[in-house]
Description:
The structure holds 2 protein chains of 2 kinds. Chain A is mainly alpha-helical. Chain A has 2 domains: 14-72, Orthogonal Bundle (Arc Repressor Mutant, subunit A), CATH 1.10.10.60; 77-217, Orthogonal Bundle (Tetracycline Repressor, domain 2). In chain A, 67% of the residues lie in helices and 0% in strands. In chain A, helix 1 packs across helix 6, helix 7 crosses helix 8 and helix 9 packs across helix 10. Chain A starts with 22 loop residues before the first helix and ends with a helix. Chain B is mainly alpha-helical. Chain B has 2 domains: 16-84; 86-223, Tetracycline Repressor, domain 2, CATH 1.10.357. Helix content of chain B is 64%, strand content 0%. Chain B has helices spanning 36-56, 63-68, 74-80, 84-108, 115-132, 134-142, 153-170, 178-181, 183-201, 207-223. The radius of gyration of chain B is 19 Å and the shape is globular. Chains A and B meet through helix 7, helix 8 and helix 9 of A and helix 1, helix 9 and helix 10 of B.
Amino acid sequence: MNDHNDLAESVDHGKTGRPPMQPRAKITREAILEVSATLFGRTGYAGTSINDILAISETTKGAMYFHFSKKESIAREMLHRWENVVSETVGKAAATGQPADRQVVMIYRELARRTETEAITRAGLILSVDQSLSGAHTAYEAWTEALTPIVVDAIRCGALDCAESMSRLADTLCAGFVGAVQVAASFDENHSITRRVDDLLLMWRGTDPASVRMIEGASL
Amino acid sequence: MNSPIDPARTPESAATTTTRPRIGRVSGSKNSAMQDRAVRTREAILTDAAQHFDVDGYGNTSINTILAASHFAKGAFYYHFPSKEAIAQQLIGDWNLAVDEAINDTTVDAAGETAFDRLAAIFSFLARKIADDVTLRAGMKLTLEASIDNGAAFARWVDAVSDIVEPAITAGECVDGPIAHRLAWNLCSGTVGAVQAAATLREDVDVATRVQDVVSAHLKSLTGP
C-alpha cells in the first residue's frame, strides 16, 4: 500500500500509485474533481466530506478511493491544477512578446476567465489561501512571485501610474483577485468574476478611455 | 450531525441581532446581569474559538478542539453557547457592530471631508481592527461561510458602504459609471482578499497595510483623472 502520510511533494494517485491510463479512468477522475470543486465552492473545503461528494456524484465509493485516498488529495490536485493554470497563462502571455503592462492585463483577464468557467481552477485558487491545508500557501506564493517581475517591469517602463506601494502592486492585485473570487464563489455569482477583475485592473490603469480600451482589448 | 449543506434551524439562528443575545437568564429578572467572571469566560470562549476559526477554518474546528486548547470547562462552554454555530453568529454580530462603529465614527468628524476620504478612513479603521482583534477577523471570514446562517452579513456590509458611495456619485464626486456603482462590493471583497493574502504570504507587510493598498488603489482609480 502507498504511504498516505507523506503526500506533500507528490500527487496522490490513489491505490495504483500512478496516473490513470485508461480514458474511462481519466473521465471518472475528472468527474470526481468537478463535483468536489462545485461542493467546495458551495460549502467550503472544510464543510464538505467525501460522503457529501459521493452523495451527488455518480461515482462509487470504490472508484473515489481508487483515485483519491482522502479528501486532502483532491484539494492537492486542485492546487496543482491552479499552479498549472498560472504558469501556463504566464507562459502564453510572455510568448506574445507584448509590452509588460499589456501582459499583466492579459494574464489577469485570462485567469479571471478561467476561474469563472472552470470550477476546478476556481476551487484551486480558493484553496491556495486556506490556512488549514498545510503547504497551500506555496501555491499562492508561486502565483504572486510569477507576477511580480512582470508587474515590476510594467512599472519600470513607466506605463503604469503607481508611485507608492509599487513593490506590493502584484500582491495587491492578487489580493483583490482572490477576494473577488472568494466572495463571488460563496454567493454563487461566479459569472461576475471577469467583470470584477476588469474593475480591479482599472483600479491601477485609471479610468481614461485609452486604458479602458486597452483592458477590453487585451486577451489571450 | 447537521449537514453542512442544509444547516438545521436552531433557535439561536433566528436571533441574529446587532446586540448580544441574552445568555440564559430571563432579561429583566433580578439575576439578569451577568457576573464579571461570567463575562470574562464568555469573552475567553469567543477569543479561543475565533483563533481556531481564523486559522483552521470554521468547518475544521469542533467544539472539542476549542475546548482542548482552552482552560474553561465544557459545562461553561455550553452555558454560554448552545452550539458552534451560536459562537459563529456572535462573532458575525460583533463584526456587524464593528462595521457600524467604523461608519458612525467617521460621520461625526467628517465635516470638511469628501465621501472618498471618509471611505478611506472607514476602511483603515476596519483594517486596524481586523489586524488587532482575532474575533473580528474571524467574524469577517464567517460572513462568507456558506454552511451557517450568517444573516447576509456580507451584503449588509456592502450596503452600508454603498450608502456612502451612492450620494458621492450623485454629487458628482467621482466618475459616474458602472464601476463606481460596483465600488462598494469591490472595496469589501478587496478587504477580504487582502486579509487572506496577508495570512497566506506571512511576510513583514501587515494586514492593515495590505488592506489599505487595495482600498486606496480602488479609490484612486475613481477620483484620479
